[in-house]
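Final paragraph of the annual report: two paired records, presented back to back.
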Amino acid sequence: MEPSILVITLAVGDLERSLRFYRDGLGFASEGIVATEFAGDEENAAGAIALFHLRGGLMLSLYPRAELAKDAKVSLERSNSGSFSLGHAVASREEVDAVLSAAQAAGATLTGPAHDRPWGIYSGYFKDPDGHLWEVLWNPELASSASS
């Protein structure tokens, strides 16, 4: 298997609320909820999703929790926000603070204030309305090599 991740799908409890959080609150570009014409049934998942095209060809997909479970043929489980985090790298310390503030204003819960980590980055975490954990980080080593 060639290592490649092109789509990250987050299971959400309320698709419209999550769309508003990411599109209106965080500014992620989206055409809104698509594929609503694909109705599901007891065995087959419905198609309605919200998509966000990110840098580097990566796509973030929001999919109703019950439909994702049905599509993957797994039991419907509540997410465990400590299982993984998504990282959002920014260009400065100030931008870390600004993104965390914007996320909080949009309905996220901050897990604590951003701070310097012993390994050289400045970062903080927030949980989206469904509990998905995001780390907003600035790495001065990456920033200095990118500007060279």
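The closing record of the year follows.
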Amino acid sequence: MSREKSLSRREFVRAGAIATAAIATPRGVFAIAGERESKDSPLQETAIRLGVASYTFRNFARGQMIGFLKKINVSELNAKDTKDHLPMDAQAETAALADYAAADIKLHAAGTIYFPKDEDADIRSKFEYCKRAGIGVIVAGDPAPATLPRIEKFVKEYDIRVAIHNHGPEDKLWPSPLDVLKTVKTMDPRIGCCIDVGHTVRAGTDVVAAIREVGPRLFNVHIKDLADFQAKESQVAVGEGKMPVRGIFEALVATKYKGFVDLEYEIFPDDPMPGVIESFAYMRGVLAGLGY
């Protein structure tokens, strides 16, 4: 990167950080400024809500993660059973939920959760896990198409949505969110997609077009950035790579997306905060530029 580009980049991130201080709410919800001017605005109910996937802090215990969330002014979490973030054991989960409540951290999704067995007992245990936490979205990692009818039964019973997470070209079942959509489009409307934008572009799918096509079946977004859309290992802080972040946010607004955009920063697991801070500054700067 040239010195001129680097300076420009730092200035933009700084501007985003300033915008963050001015417009970020305690829960990371960005509302369109124009909404305050007209109650009849068609965008009145549209908001971009930023959260964090707890896998970002997989090498850190729950208490440390809560401290990190406070530093970036984010209180919305997509929790995973990693470290002690949200244990599957009911007693340990209760302790975790108490810590989050005390810190005013809200859990909006859980995952990635895997469904290796086409068995009622195994599937019910995952739904009970989310019910105890008051979580409305299960981010599902690898459900086989043959298992989906059984999962659908529990979706109806528990009224908990299932968002199937695509994992790129290595994923033999769900490389792209469009592969998910083809399979679930005739199922209960509470079965849909978690679009991982990094894996989506690596699968050769236009991520902005995919968001528009998935539409009301999009329940969660994992956001990250890549320097090379063919290389999984090229992840960088959001804004440092080629991801069309502005286009992604515009598509979410256009489809009236009501879920969360969760940062999943998978690099530097022992020291993620510099990249996390830069990613949020960039995203908030983009949102400010869009009038949020």
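The chain has ten helices and eleven strands. This concludes the annual technical report; the extension proposal builds directly on these records.
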